[in-house]
Every structure is written in C-alpha cells, then in structure tokens.
Specification:
The complex is a heterodimer of chains A (182) and B (125). Chain A contains 9 helices and no strands. Chain A has 182 residues and is mainly alpha-helical. Chain A folds into 2 domains: 97 residues, Rna Polymerase Sigma Factor, Chain: A (Orthogonal Bundle), CATH 1.10.1740; 84 residues, Arc Repressor Mutant, subunit A (Orthogonal Bundle). Classes of the chains: A mainly alpha (182), B mainly alpha (125).
Chain lengths: 182, 125
C-alpha cells in the first residue's frame, strides 16, 4: 500500500506553484472543517461561509505555516477563529467569558421528541454551550487528541479535559430530560 | 439512561453531516483555482495614470482650445528637458529606481499573516 503525500508535502508543493496540491488539502479537510463550523455556529449558511473563509485565509497565509506542524491543527484553529468572529458579530458570544450554562433558546427537549437516537444526540450537542460543543465535536466526532484540541482552541490541556467532562455531564442530563433510555 | 461508556460509544458513532453541495468547488474557485486577474496591479496603475493624463488633456482642450493645450505641453516639455539635463537629478532618479527594483526582488509581496491567536493578544496587553 502506498500512502499519499503528507499534508506538509502538499503545502510545500502548493507554495511551489502547484494548485492541485492545495485542492487535495481541501478535499482532505473541507468536510471536517465544515463540521466544526456547523457545530460551532449551528447555521448551515454561516458554517459554509466560515469554512470558505478559513480555507481562503489558510491559502493566503500558507507561507506562515511552519514546516513540521500539523496542517489539521492549523486549519481547525483558523476555522475556529473565523467562527468566533462570526459569533462575536452576532453578539451571541462574549470573547473571554463564555456562558457556563446550556443555551436556553432552542428547547431541544421539545424538538427531540420526534427524532431518532442520532438526532436526539445531535440536538443535545447543539444545546451545549459553545465551548463544550466545540470540544465534543473535535474529540468525539472528529477523533482529535487532547493536545491537538488544546492547540486549536488555544486552551490548556487540563481545561480541555474539564470541558469534555462537563460537556458529557450536561449531555447526559439533556438526554435524560429527553427521556432517552439506553 | 446513558452511562459514560454508552454515551462515548454513541458520540463516536455519530456520523458527520454532509457539507452543502458546491462547497468544495466554491472554496477551490476562491483559492487554488482562482482565475487570474485580467491586469496586474502595476498594469492597472499604469492604465489609471494614462487615463488620468488623457482626461486632463481633454479638459485642457475643452476649456482653452488648442492654444492652452499647446502651451501646457510646451511647459511640460521644457520642465522635463531642464530636469533630465541635470546630471545630479538623473543620478538620484537612477538611485531611486535601482533601490525600488532591488527591494521588489528582495522581499516580494509577503502574504498577510494569519490572525493573532488569543495567547498572542493576551501577551501583548
């Protein structure tokens, strides 16, 4: 089995003037970046725009990418910042003090009645505060390691673990409230 | 009720949503496969300058007829002749041009850097 070029190779090839290499990077990460943006912003159009913005900024700043660094961490960090900027603009989010409580607005319990298990789980994730939602998305849904999440979110490792622990506590409470039985 | 393991299993098994149709194409059109602009920045600058000079000459013709137009061209020509017949001026122009050329070859146009992250902003406070 032959492995394809590494992300670092693709970045280097792009910088040498080969646009196909960047296209391969987009193919590798567009879905994951969109998913992170969608889980953070909870809006299809906003997530689409944030994903485009993240790749555009990455493409323009490709020379600042440090050889040896992980491209996934880098592009996720850019995407997460783009999402935070959008949330700030929407005034749903205060930059340094994120809410510790679950968002009250959507009423996931009511929405979830007619959903299947996966739908209920998604609704419960959507009801989490932004900081918990993002950690759950990166860790469970995208399989990222604690260290990478800490880099993406620019948080200490211990904070990431605490967020994940609290996120799961809240998820269990939300799912219990939906009457889910395992 | 979910216990911890069951919740982990359910979360890990949750599939990612499909991105909207056309997202990849629009990303590629904005980045790697962006069509080259018809004119470069330098070409646009030269075209703009030529356009401005042409507009100015038309205004001269309209306002003062042929005499004002001819007088202005004569004034410009004599000024240029005086300026470029002076060896010191020519030397400075050559030095400036050479420096500009060297700088453009040396540094190029650096891309914009990525946005500062939170720790950078915190440290700069």
């Amino acid at each position: 089995m032959t492995a394809g070029p590494t992300d670092g190779d693709l970045v280097a090839t792009t910088l040498q003037g080969n646009p196909d290499a960047f296209a391969t990077l987009v193919e590798r990460y567009d879905r994951a970046v969109y998913h992170l943006a969608y889980r953070t912003l909870r809006d299809v159009e906003e997530a689409r725009d944030a994903t485009q913005e993240a790749f555009f900024k990455a493409f323009r700043s490709l020379r600042t990418f440090k050889p040896g660094a992980k491209f996934s961490t880098w592009i996720f960090a850019i995407a997460y910042h783009a999402c935070c900027d959008r949330l700030n603009r929407q005034k749903r989010y205060a930059s340094d003090e994120m809410p510790d409580f679950a968002d009250a607005a959507p009423g996931p319990e009511q929405q979830a009645v007619a959903l299947d298990e996966a739908g209920r789980l998604r609704a419960a994730i959507d009801a989490l505060p932004e900081k918990y939602r993002t950690v759950v998305t990166l860790f469970h849904l995208q399989g990222r390691q604690y260290e990478e999440i800490a880099s993406v979110l620019n948080l200490p490792l211990g904070t990431v673990k605490t967020h994940l622990f609290r996120a799961k506590e809240q998820l269990r409470r939300l799912l219990d409230g939906m009457g889910v039985t395992e | 009720m979910y216990d911890e393991d069951a919740l982990d299993r359910a979360l890990f098994a949750l599939p990612l949503e499909e991105p909207p149709a056309g997202l990849r194409a629009s990303i590629l059109l904005a980045t790697a496969y962006r069509p080259a602009p018809a004119f470069s920045v330098i070409e646009l600058g030269v075209l703009g300058a030529l356009g401005a000079v042409a507009a100015w000459l038309v205004v001269l013709l309209v306002l003062g007829g042929g005499s004002l137009f001819v007088n202005t061209l004569e004034t410009i020509a004599s000024f240029a002749e005086r300026t470029f017949s002076n060896p010191a001026t020519l030397a400075w122009v050559a030095a400036g041009g050479a420096t500009a050329l060297w700088l453009s070859l040396f540094s190029g146009f650096a891309p914009a850097t990525a946005m500062p992250n939170r720790s950078t902003r915190r440290n700069s406070r």
